[in-house]
Design goal:
The chain is an alpha+beta fold and about 180 residues long. The chain has 4 helices and 10 strands, in the order ααβββββββαβββα. The chain has 2 domains: about 40 residues; about 130 residues, Jelly Rolls, CATH 2.60.120.
Length: about 180
């Protein structure tokens, strides 16, 4: 019996070493999520409290805050490889929030204004603002949208909230979200 337990422990350690070799800060909760079939994007870890953290940027996506609850963590896609992940939130009242972490690619963006904002935030001459905010109508949903973008450890973090209809969305999510990225 004891030999069987030692063998099982050795097998588990060998498996976890092989699975976790890509990231030496790979927490046990991430390993357990992967074993359960809940894939977590590379560079992200799931904390024991249900929050997620993107290691390189230091961005923390809490399980809930400001009346919003996290629904999903979406990883990179082939058409947007610079996006490391998006934490998606809902508030139960028709608003959707998102924390998007991405690498800076000059000229990339949903539109020219986004690309210009990114360039300003990533300026290395000391002129970079602490954050930039933009408002508009979401092309995908037709709802009002507010986005605050900040630079965290060389990565761009977009904190957005969308309100269905053309009402002004709740700006508190986007503004408060920019403080969570220091996680």
């Amino acid at each position: 019996m004891r030999l069987a337990l030692v063998g099982a422990a050795a097998a588990a350690m060998a498996f976890s070493s092989a699975v976790c070799a890509q990231d030496n800060q790979f927490p046990l909760s991430t390993l357990m999520s992967n074993l359960a079939g809940n894939s977590i994007p590379a560079g992200w870890s799931r904390n024991l409290d249900g929050s997620f953290k993107q290691a390189d940027s230091g961005v923390l996506c809490p399980k809930s805050f400001q009346g919003y609850t996290m629904d999903n963590l979406i990883g990179p896609s082939p058409d947007r490889p610079n996006v490391l992940g998006v934490c998606v939130y809902t508030d139960g009242a028709g608003r959707t929030g998102a924390i998007r972490v991405r690498r800076y690619l000059e000229g990339w963006g949903d539109d020219e204004a986004t690309a210009e904002n990114d360039k300003k935030l990533m300026a290395t001459d000391g002129s970079a603002p602490p954050m930039l905010m933009r408002t508009g109508i979401s092309r995908r949903t037709g709802g009002g949208r507010v986005t605050v973008t900040v630079d965290r450890n060389g990565y761009l973090v977009d904190c957005s909230v969308t309100q269905l209809g053309h009402e002004m969305p709740d700006r508190a999510f986007a503004l408060y979200c920019s403080t969570l990225t220091n996680g």
